[in-house]
Amino acid sequence: MSQNNNDNSSFSYLAQQVRKTILTISYEKKTPHIGSALSCVELLLASYGMWNKNQITGNARNSVILSKGHAATALYSVLNMKGMITDKLITKYADPWSPLPEHPVLNEELGIQATTGSLGHGLSIGTGLALGFRINNVKQNMFVIMSDGECNEGSVWEAAIFAPSQNLDNLTVVIDANKWQATDRSTNIISNQALSGIFKSFGWASVNVDGHDERNLSDVFSKLPLERGKPSAVIGHTVKGKGISFMEDDNNWHYRTPTDSEFNAAIRELETN
To answer: Residue 235 CA to chain centroid, in angstroms?
Structure first.
C-alpha cells in the first residue's frame, strides 16, 4: 500500500474515490445507508487486497462477502474500482431489474459472492465456503465483512463456534464497529464492546484495529491468519459517515439522503482532503 496521497494507486486515494462513488450513486438514486457504507470503505479495500480484474482472476484473489448488505453501495463502488462492475453498469444501481439492487444479490460474474441484507447470515455462508475451499484444496482466503450491530444475531455465533472446531484459518471476519445500530448506540441495545475477547473465547484469534488507518490495516492483514489453525477476527473500529465531516457519527445518515447543497459540499470536502 502506497503512502503517497498524490499517487492514484495509493490506499488513501482509492478510499477517497470509493467514497465519491458511494455519495454519487446514493444521491442520484435517493437511497439511504450512506453512513454505513462510508464507515467500511477501508475495511473492504483491505479485504480485497490490491488485485484488479485484469491482473488476477479466479481462485488467486480473496473471496469477500459483505454481510452488512445495507452498505451495498460500498461493495459496488469497490468492485467498480476493481473493474468487476463497469462505469456504465454502476449508473444502473437501484434501477428496476438492475443486477445492482439496494442490497446485494449473488452474481459471480460481477464479483458479488452472496445475497445479503437480512443480517446475521454472511458468516455462516462464508464459513461454509471456507470449509469447501479446504475440502477441495483451493488455496483461497474467505473474508466476511459484518457490522457490530449484526453481532446481535444468534446465527452469527452458531457459525462462530463452528469455524474454530474445523480449524478454518482461511476464514477472516472483519467487523465494522462504528458503534451505531439502526436506531441507537450499540451499547444501548446490547453491550458488545468486548468483541475481540468474545471471539477469542469462541476459539478465534482476534485483534482490534483502527478501521480507517492504512498502516494499521496493512500490518494486520499482512499477518493473516493471526494464528495457524484458527479463524481470524479483525475488529475494525470505525466512524459512521467517515470522510464527510457533517455526516460523521451522525446516525441520521443511516436513513437520510443528501440535498443538492449537501451533496455538493460533501464532494468538495472529499476533493480537498
So the answer is: 12
